[in-house]
Amino acid sequence: MVVMDVLDVLWHGVRDSFLMAWEVWWALVLGFTISAIVQAWVPRRRIEGLMSGSGPRSVGWATGLGAASSSCSYAAIAIAKSLFQKGASAVSALAFQFASTNLVWELGLVLWVLIGWQFTLAEYVGGIAMIVLMTALMRVFVSRRLEEEAREHAREADTGHRHRAVGEQLSWRERLASIQAWSDVAHNFRGDWKMLWKEISIGFLLAGFIAQFGNGFFEQLFIRNAPAPLPTIENVIIGPIIAVLSFVCSVGNVPLAAVLWSGGISFAGVLAFLFADLIVIPILWIYRKYYGTTFTIRITTLMFVTMVVAALIVDGIFSALGLIPTGPRPTRADIFSSLQVNYKLALNVLGIVIFAAMIWLTSRRGATDPVCRMKVDRAKAVSKEFANETLYFCSDHCLHAFEAGAQRAHPLPIEDTANVR
To answer: Which of 54, 225, 386, 414 has CB atoms 3.0–4.6 Å from 89's, for a disulfide?
Structure first.
């Protein structure tokens, strides 16, 4: 009997995870496609040069570049670290991270589909509010001296591979007709999915299985009947803590946010949960590696404060404007939906076609970098002949890493090392 109960829970958890994924599949594909087009066709080199300061102009550029980037939290912090190494201020680097994980297309689309347009709008408004708050509070938490120490630490840290800039110097009309230009899009599309598929899958699985607990489980976590504003304040603190402990970030935390909303967390609590994807435990360890312990503690505290305060500000604004949903919360059936012959089926089939076309294009024109395992376009990749085989690399950095590894595995004879320059 116990075995049957366990199997029943497993079945319903997996089923609900699949149904939620089905609910948002078309939005995910559309969002990643738009993001890939922007990454491939919008030049970045000149923009990066405008981010060295900490004033409104550099922060604005960082916000714009972040919004045009992938929603992957891990990619966001890697790019931000690279910008920080090159001279961008800590304010600009964090603004890039906030924008890259809160102001992107795919996140807004999935939120809209699952729990409503109000959350999409609140996510975008909150992302901007966090950037403004972070800019204003930076020097309260991080001194200029600590910032420069962190920059030196970042320069000494393992930099990892750096991908070549993609896109061609073509007009938009020429790009639409260019296979090479669409190959750039496809490779960005595939790269984003490769970075995020685990996060997204874990997010759906967590949502599917946590949904089996029922609303009674959440009523024990969230204060609901205390005098205002205690429930809202408690929720915006508990929301980020749940996010940190869930290990899920980027688009992957949206399904769990939908379950939390169904379970009784406040509007502000949902927002604080969504904002907290930059302080999950694996990312905190990466910050420590990049910037050192002290800087990591300071910026984590800064981000937590800005997330909580931004959620409260947006909640207050939306309450005043009457934009917070007041109707019945979505039920489990609403969130997890069902397979039906309707417009959603047509959109999901279209999503499957687009996904397959992008993957096919990268398979036809691409090769796998033997160092970082990224798919690269053979026509644009760095290549090297090795053991009668042509190898392709995403960047010179990965090529040099491969050559160093090959040298360690097959060192030159002692008498030949004198000829190496």
So the answer is: 54
